[in-house]
Structure formats: structure tokens, C-alpha cells
Amino acid sequence: MHLRAKPWAADWLATHSDIVIDQERATAQIGKWQDLFDQEQPIHVEIGSGKGQFILGMALAHPEINYIGMEIQETAIAIAARKSFDQVGKLPNLRYIHGNGNGVETYFEKAEVAKLYLNFSDPWPKKRHESRRLTYKTFLKSYEAILPDHGEVEFKTDNRHLFEYSMVSFMDYGMRWAADDYTLDLHADEDKVAGNIETEYEKKFLAKGQPIYKIKAHF
Q: Catalytic one among 11, 38, 122, 185?
């Protein structure tokens, strides 16, 4: 969903460039992302962070991991970063990229990212838009290029069609998962929902009684 532009967004991002990295700077940061964090530790990236509830929650819950939220919409990334900054200041393990998730291999080296998250991505339901889905094969190739061997992609959605499409896309690409690495109703499974950090969309869909689908797939 495209958000209405906020008049303060561009100025806020410009004055907080230590927290939010623009696309041009992100490409120059390849191989050197650890320099932006207080400690050298595994880097996890969320592609399509929206208003940032998930990535902030993860950074607070797991200080032993460095997190990067990536979002193309200026308003969304500004809302996410400002919300985080206003609540807890500059977190030592959280940064943002204001950039396109298409072509993440231009931002990161092989194995520079330990894990990827895709949360409630746009389903692009029309067949002619298949290549825009974040689980399409060209995106998977980009993810493989920045993850370690057998690296993991964690995917959550409320959209059953997109979930089924993504499982087939993962399999066709050669990705695999164990029997307990997926669920068709995350919040009905006490074992799998333990430690789950909800996104804004997840809260919305749960309130409507919709099941949340989740899978952890490995290259």
C-alpha cells in the first residue's frame, strides 16, 4: 500500500543519514556494513519494512544480531526510522536502507547477510505482474547472492495464493525446508508463534480472523 507523502519525511531522512542509508550510499557500503554498527555480529535484513514495527521489535528482542530494514517508499522508511528513534534513540544494532529490494546483491557481498525476512509482501495477483513478486525466481537469485550457503529466507503472508505460489517458486529454485519449518496458521501453533514479532499488517489481519502463513526456506 502506497502511503500519503509526509512533508517532513525528506528533511528528517537527510538529517538522520547515520540511521537511514540512501540507495547511492548503500551501493558504496557493499562489504562494509559491519562498520555502521557498534558491534560486529550477524546481519539480518528485512526487505519491505513498511512502517518498521517488525524490524524494531526484532532489534530490541535480539541485541546479539544487527538488523537492517529496507524500504523503497520515502514516507514509510521515514515513519519507521523516526518511530524507532523517538522511542529508543539510535539503536546500536538497527539501520535502514531507503532503497529498492530489487537487486540487493548491489548492496551486499556474498554471505554478508546471514538471514532475510519477507513480511506481507505485495501479492501482485495478476499473472503479468508475476516477476514483481518478491519470491519470483529473479529475486531468489539475488537473495542467494548475498546469503551464505544454505542461507535462510523467512516469509510471512496472509495471502494463501501467494504462499502457495512462493512454496512452488522456492522448490523450483532448489530451496528446501523441514516439515516443521512452515505453518498454515501461525497463531494457532503455540510452538511456532513463540517469539514471533508481529508486523502492522499482521495485527490487522489477525483482528479480522485471517490465518497467517509462514515458511523458513533454505538455499
A: 122
